[in-house]
Structures are given as C-alpha cells and as structure tokens.
Specification:
The complex is a heterodimer. By secondary structure, chain A is an all-alpha fold. Chain A contains seven helices and no strands. Chain A has helices at 3-31, 34-62, 65-79, 88-116, 122-150, 153-173, 177-180. Chain A is globular, with a radius of gyration of 17 Å. The relative contact order of chain A is 0.22. Chain B is an alpha+beta fold. Among the domains of chain B are: 2-36; 220-464, Alpha-Beta Plaits (2-Layer Sandwich). In chain B, the strands form four sheets. An eight-stranded antiparallel β-sheet of chain B has the order 15-12-14-13-17-18-16-19, with helices on both faces. In chain B, strands 6, 7, 8, 9, 10 and 11 form a six-stranded antiparallel β-sheet that branches. In chain B, a hairpin with a 5-residue loop joins strand 9 and strand 10 (183-187). In chain B, helix 11 (370-383) runs antiparallel to helix 12 (424-443). The chains are: A mainly alpha, B alpha+beta. Chain B: Keywords: FAD, Flavoprotein, Membrane, Oxidoreductase, Transmembrane, Transmembrane helix. Chain B: One of its GO terms (molecular function) is D-arabinono-1,4-lactone oxidase activity. Chain B: The chain crosses the membrane at residues 12-31.
C-alpha cells in the first residue's frame, strides 16, 4: 500500500518544489555575497548529516511515519518565517532547522519505501514512486516561477506552506502496522 | 477499542495541528504586513531608512501638533508625499515622518480667476478629476499625475508645456508650517524670500500646508509625431516650439536601443485647435466624449514588454520599433483634450524586483549644447555598459524664480531611465557613471536635477548650483535646530 506515501510525498515535493528553487535565489539576496550563501547552504547539509544516524535508528523503533509528519508540518511552519526574515543570522538558524527536518524526511522516506516493497518488484515500485514524486516537483517549479512573476515571492512561501500542511494529513493515513504484519 | 483510541488520537492531533498552524500563519501574515512600516523608501527602493514614527496628518492641527512634539522631544522631521524623489529627500533616519498623502482635500476652485486651492497631499490626478468638468486644466506638472502637489512644489518640477518653465511660475501662494510651530502665508508679496526657498527647497524650511495654483483652459489639441535628426532638434525647438502660442504640449524621445542608441529621435507636438477647425468636435456629445478623462489601459501588456526590454537588448529594439509604428499610425493626428494628454500611463512602470531597480535622472542642457551632450552621453552609456531604458526630452524655457533654479537659460531637459543592480557593486558602478554624465553636463554649462540620487560629488553640486552654499545658510537661519531634515541635506550640507 504505497498509495498514501505516494500522495503525501508527491504533495510534499510539490510544496517544496514551489518554494525551494526560489528560496535559493531569495537566500543569495538576503546573504548579499556568495560566501554567506555558501555558508547558509553548507549549514543545511551538515546539520542534516549530523542527525541522519539518529533518525535512522529511532525510526526503526518508533516508525517512520512520525518523522515524515514532523518534517512536513515543521517545514510548513518554517516556510511561514521566510516572508519575515530580515537578516542572514536568521537564515542560518532556519537552515539548521531545515537541515534536521530534511534528514528526517530523507532517511524515513527511503526506509518506508523499502518497508512497503520487497524482493522481485521492488525496483519497479520504487521507479513508479519516483515518477509521481518527481513529476509533481517539476510542475511545482514551473508554477512557482509563474506565481512569483505574477504576484510576489511572499505568495509562494505562503502557498507552499499551505500545501505542506495539507500533505501532512495524508501522512496520517499511512498505516505502518500493515507492513509489520 | 483500539480503533476508537486511535481515532481519538487522530482527532486530537488534527485539532492541535490546525490550531498551531493557524496561529502561526496569522502571526506570519501580521508581522509581514506590519513589520517594515517604519522602513521608508522611495520608488527606487535604494537606501531605505527606518524612521522613528509615522504621522499621517489629515488635519492641520495634527501636523502642527507633530511639529511641536518633535521640537519638545528634539526629534528630526522628514516630509513625504508620493515619494518619487530618489535621493532620500523625503525621509531621514529616526525622524518623525510626516506622510502627507492623507492631507488631501481640495479647498476652493475659483473658475473666474482660474485658480485652485488645495491641501499639499492632493495629487495632480485628484485635481484633474476635480477641474475637468469645469473645463479647466493644470498649467505645469510632471509628465505623470501620480505625484502630490506638496512634493512637486518641494522639487519645483517642470512639465511638457513649452510655454512654462518650472512649477514655481504657476504658484500664487501657499501656507507654511515652520519649525517653531507657527503657520505663515508665503507668496511673491508676503515672506517673499521663503517663496523661492521653499519651492524647490526639498522640505527643509517647513511643511507646505495648502497651495493656490494657477489653472488654464482644457484646450483641445491635435497631436503629431514626427521623426527628426537629433542634430536638428535645437533649431526646431527655437523656431517651431518656443514662444509658439499654438503649441500646447511638446516632448521628444531618443532611442535607448542598442542599434540606434541616442540616434533615432521622435517628437510629439500637441497643437491647439479652435472651434472653426474641422477636427474640432461638432456636437456636444462628441465634445463630452473627448474631454472625459481616460484611465490607463493595457497595464499588464505594457508591463510585460517593458519587463522584456529591461532584460534583453532584442526586446529593446522590438519595443522601440513597435512604438514608432504605433506613432506612425497616429501621424494623421489624434484629437485629445489637454487633461487627457497630461495623464499618460505610468502604472506599467511600477517595478519591485529585489535584485535590481529602475532609477531616473534628469539633465538640463542649454539648447545650443544638446548635440554635444547627446554624443557624450552615448559614449558613456556604451563604455560603462549602462542599461538605459528610456530617454525623453522636454523643453524648459528660462525662468529666474527659485533659489536653486535649474532653468537659468532655455534648456532641453533629458530624463534618463536606467535599470541597475541593487548590489553594492551595482550601485557603485551607477554612481561612478552618474558622476561622468554630470561632468559632461557641467562642461556644457548644464545642470543635473537635484531630485534624484545623491551620486554627484560635493564639488559637482557646488558647480551645478553655485547658490547651494547660501541656500544651506538660509536653511540654518530659518530652522537653526535643523528640525526639518533629510538625506539630501545631510549629504551635501555637512
């Protein structure tokens, strides 16, 4: 039953796809120069690296679902801070938080997809899973560009946040126990 | 049992999520809407400043109160209207900012004398709306009607009517709220020194309260657009436009396209037609339709094309060609009222990228030196790789009134619209190029317009406006505590 995972993660990627490419442009503007931009992006990846181990271990015990949910709703909240950011210091803090949440999503997503697939047809299912998820993400980037041109950058942050918040509900439908059986 | 418990948890989580998210969303929107209110900037969004407090005075008493309170608390005061000056003339850090845009009542129209008395926050558009039914029109205003009267007076603007010099020429009187909290009348007969200091004084002598302006008739014009070699333009101006009573409005455009940079030139002239003319509306209905005020159309279309030409050279060429085709179609001549001719579109120019900005500059060049200036400007634009987007030319006849007048002789005024990056490097580059253009103007006995960026050097401003030193001295005499303060004064007076 990959259904709810596909739906929730597609929607998630739609929300992040809407925001992320433009968030990077936005960052380079708040940062002002490339070194600060580099630091901001590095912080994101490093903070991510530091929690991957822990997330993996914990998710084996308490399940992947809660981590996916924390990432989705957590990101939805963080997106709300983008429009009101004023300094590079605030960007660094947000990058740390996003890095931690990103690690929760990446590790749990891979693990849960693995949980729900097995043996022979695993590759096929993962291929199909990525098809849908990438498709949504691609459309989101295009839509995001148009939205910014027509409206303002702030709009996509709010719009992306709402989509993320909604996608969280679909995570609630994922029934992990079925797989354990 | 288990299912029930799970269902209960789900509901609890859902409820909690909605409450927390809803609150965070509302908070974000709230902060987003309110946070930067005290951060004041002009339309170019260069060099914003955070002010101490914003006072939106609808009543005179509130403005007097604000000035007195600022005096008691030893705070500076800055004054803003539409905020289209681009050198921080309208604001100052940690000052009490008087936002005049709500002080906007039309007080009295005298149809017989053809004068109107308005509060200084009134925009030209409001005046046009008000006087159009009375068959009257504004004598002098900018090319667009979005500006406030107070701001226009403070920067002593000029317009497209070649009969008139700067705005000061059409001002009868005004009342001024001084730094000590007193209100005085100012005209050519009363407090006459302040008349010339305040108009074109960038808000440094007090708050302009209400203004009486001269009006003229809402004449019917027929427009004509022709191509001209820019080298022949000065002669054309002197012979065909200056002192020619039937010319109502006149302006020209120089190409900002890479192919014909500052070479191609088109000019548009509006000539008065009288009732006898066969193009004059024959019946009442046609006349009513003609004088009805136009609203701006095709904003999105124009914005799109303008956006393209901001980015791409090919689009610059395309837009210029399209424009000329449109003008050529109108060669037969469009019949239009003065009021409608004086409200050309501007909304499509609104631009708010975080990365770059559109800025204006203006240079007043003695008519005889026009060709030399254009040639020099072309060289600078090419060498410095400037993104020049639009150049308009208007004729400003000599007018001596005004302490910092820019029209000491008959001049051609070139308005340049540049797009440049908002980064530190982008600004530094534009500053350097601006100083080169200013030098070019100074060498030819010309001047630059003070209303725009503070890029010119101390030396340059003193050369362009030899009276600036005594202007600053007078400021200190009238306002010894420097209550009225702005970035322009701080940059050049200290």
């Amino acid at each position: 039953m990959l259904k709810w995972i596909v739906i929730s993660q597609s929607l998630l990627l739609f929300g992040t796809g809407l925001v992320f490419p433009f968030y990077i442009i936005f960052l380079s503007e708040v940062g002002g120069n490339f070194s600060e931009f580099g630091i901001a992006y590095g912080i994101f990846t490093i903070s991510s690296a530091l929690v991957h181990h822990w997330v993996g271990r914990r998710s084996d015990k308490v399940g992947r679902k809660s981590f996916l949910l924390i990432n989705t709703w957590g990101s939805a909240l963080i997106y709300l801070t983008f429009p009101i950011i004023t300094s590079i210091g605030q960007v660094y803090i947000i990058q740390v938080l996003l890095g931690i949440l990103g690690a929760m999503q990446k590790t749990s997503e891979k693990a849960i997809v693995a949980d729900f697939t097995d043996g022979e047809s695993r590759g096929k299912k993962i291929g199909s899973y990525h098809f849908w998820v990438s498709l949504f993400s691609g459309f989101a980037v295009i839509v995001g560009g148009f939205l910014i041109d027509l409206l303002t950058v702030d709009i996509i942050f709010y719009f992306g946040s709402i989509i993320l918040f909604v996608s969280g509900w679909f995570i609630l439908f994922i029934n992990e126990s079925r797989d354990v059986n | 049992m288990n299912w029930l418990k799970q269902n209960y948890n789900l509901k609890l989580i859902s409820l909690l999520a909605i409450v927390v998210y809803g609150a965070a969303f509302a908070l974000s929107i709230y902060i987003n809407q309110t946070e930067d209110k005290l951060l004041i900037h002009d339309v170019s969004r260069l060099f914003p400043d955070r002010v101490y407090e914003i006072v939106e005075g609808e009543e005179e008493a509130a403005l007097v109160e604000a000035v007195k309170a600022a005096k008691e608390n030893n705070l500076k005061i800055s004054i803003g209207g539409a905020r289209h000056s681009q050198g921080g003339h309208a604001f100052y850090q940690d000052s009490v900012f008087l936002d005049m845009s709500n002080y906007n009542k039309i007080l009295k129209l005298d149809e017989k004398e053809k004068t109107i008395k308005v509060q200084s926050g009134v925009t030209w558009e409001q005046i046009q709306d008000y006087i159009n039914p009375h068959g009257l029109a504004i004598k002098v205003m900018q090319s667009s009607n979005v500006f406030t009267v107070g701001g226009s007076l403070s920067s002593n603007v000029h317009g497209r009517d070649p009969q008139y010099g700067p705005l000061i020429e059409t001002v009868k009187s005004f009342r001024l709220l001084k730094a000590d909290g007193n209100v005085i009348n100012v005209s050519r007969n009363e407090n006459e020194e302040l008349f010339e200091l305040v108009i074109g004084g960038y808000g440094l002598f007090g708050v302009i309260l209400d203004v009486t302006l001269e009006l003229t008739d809402n004449e019917i014009y027929v427009s004509q657009t022709e191509k001209i070699n820019y080298k022949d333009y000065p002669e054309y101006i002197i012979k065909q436009i200056a002192n020619n009573d039937d010319v109502g409005l006149h302006f020209a455009r120089l190409a900002a396209t890479p192919d014909d940079l500052l070479n191609d030139m088109y000019m548009t002239t509006y000539r008065t037609i009288d009732k006898g003319d066969d193009r004059y509306p024959t019946n009442e209905d046609d006349y009513e339709e003609l004088v009805e005020l136009n609203e701006e159309q095709n904003v999105l279309r124009d914005k799109f094309f303008f956006g393209l030409s901001r980015k791409y050279d090919w689009a610059k060429n395309l837009v210029w060609d399209l424009q000329q085709k449109l003008y050529a179609e109108k060669e037969e001549g469009e019949v239009v009222s003065r009021n409608n001719a004086m409200r050309p579109p501007i909304e499509f120019l609104e631009y708010d990228s975080d990365k770059d900005t559109d800025i204006l500059q203006e240079y007043f060049i003695p008519v005889d030196h026009f060709e030399e200036f254009v040639d020099g400007l072309r060289k600078i634009v090419k060498e410095d790789d400037l993104n020049l987007m639009n150049v308009t030319v208007r004729y400003t006849p000599k007018h001596n009134e005004g302490y910092l007048t820019y029209a000491k002789e008959d001049t051609l005024a070139l308005v340049l619209l540049f797009n440049h990056e908002l980064s530190d490097e982008g600004i530094a580059h534009m500053k350097l190029s601006t100083q080169k253009i200013v030098n070019q103007a100074l060498e030819l006995n010309g001047r630059y317009y003070l209303t725009y960026q503070l890029f010119p050097s101390q030396d340059q401003i003193r050369k362009a406006y030899p009276k600036i030193e005594s202007f600053f001295k007078r400021k200190l005499e009238y306002d010894p505590n420097e209550r009225f303060m702005n970035n322009f004064y701080e940059r050049y007076a200290k």
